[in-house]
Amino acid sequence: MRNFILRRLFLGIFITFFGAMVVYSVIRALPTSYVETIARQRATNPLSTKTYQEWLDQLNQVYGLDKGIIPGFVGWLGNAVRGDFGDSWHYGVPVIQKFNDVVWISFIMNIITLLVEVLIAIPLGIMAATKQYSRADYAITVFALMGISLPTFFLATILKYVFSIKLGWFDLYGLTGRFFSTMTPIQQFFDKAYHLVLPVFTLMMLSIGGLMRYTRTNMLEVLNSDYIRTARAKGLSENVVINKHAFRNTLIPLVSYLSYLLPSMFGGALITETLYQIPGIGFISYQAITRGDIPFAMFYTTFLIILTQVSLLVADIMYAVVDPRVRVN
């Protein structure tokens, strides 16, 4: 196991290095840059004594954009290894500081969504498998397909139209209300929770269908196994057969499925956060990338690559925890 973990760590570092280099090359090739916007703003300032091109050349030299892609990436990598990701061009603060300010909003949203998703999707998926071709199975299948098929923007628009415009229960946008600054800490907590109801419900509806179908499919495969028929032939109750024997083996593919949720917890839900204008890491990163904010975009994408590698390693280790028969060779 130790040698396997070391090999996977080495492979993860290799993938992260080349993944970051590809991302850096793509961002450098974008037709827009926030540096150009800054240069244009400073050049139009009446007190400025430099032209647009002079400001642009100076800013490119400061941020290392006057170098080629490979030298520029090597310079960025050297600073990143030391923990220096620079200042965000768009937000004007250190990248790490801005990330810490917004990532926990996305994490809270996704961890709540994950808990609700697991508590609902897995039991319903098991129910659909154990009652195959029944009315309950058809109803659960239709509900799951709706969750898989609905586009994020369509579901969010419907929810905002019904619960915000028609019923007036929730605000259309934002994380806080208009009187947030005058509230007590407890009131501020509940105000944020109140504004997260629709975004969390949107994420839950969009993710619950996939896990439900995945659980049903794997549960049906396990229920048709020989050892399940043997357990029933021994006279074991159906609850023992389902919960002790079948569900334990269903966990193996579920671990692989759930491992990919780790990057989404810290990566944020870009579309959902943007539609509701929740200042999470997804929405903030979207604004930074569209404005050519290379320091923030590089940190964010590299962070997601590392999270993906960690989640895959955790999934491989969890295989042996869930099923003792699984061992790394």
Summarize the structure.
The protein has helices spanning 2-28, 34-43, 52-62, 69-81, 95-130, 135-149, 152-166, 185-195, 197-223, 226-233, 238-259, 261-267, 270-276, 281-290, 294-322.
- The ordered H/E elements are HHHHHHHHHHHHHHH
CATH topology of the domain at 98-293: MetI-like fold
CATH superfamily of the domain at 98-293: MetI-like
CATH architecture of the domain at 98-293: Orthogonal Bundle
Report low-confidence residues grouped into runs of 5 or more.
none
CATH class of the domain at 98-293: Mainly Alpha
Helix content: over 70%
Count of discrete alpha- or pi-helical segments spanning 4 or more residues: 15
The class by helix and strand makeup works out as mainly alpha
> How far is the N terminus from the C terminus?
8 Å
Rg, Å, rounded: 25 Å
Shape: globular
Largest sheet: none
Q: Say how many strands there are.
A: 0
Report the sheet-strand fraction: under 5%
Overall pLDDT level: 82
What does this structure look like?
The protein has helices spanning about 1-30, 35-45, 50-60, 70-80, 95-130, 135-150, 150-165, 185-195, 195-225, 225-235, 240-260, 260-265, 270-275, 280-290, 295-320. It has 15 helices and no strands. It has a domain at about 100-295: MetI-like (MetI-like fold, Orthogonal Bundle), CATH 1.10.3720.10. The protein is globular. With about 325 residues, the chain is mainly alpha-helical. The model has no long low-confidence stretch (mean pLDDT about 80).
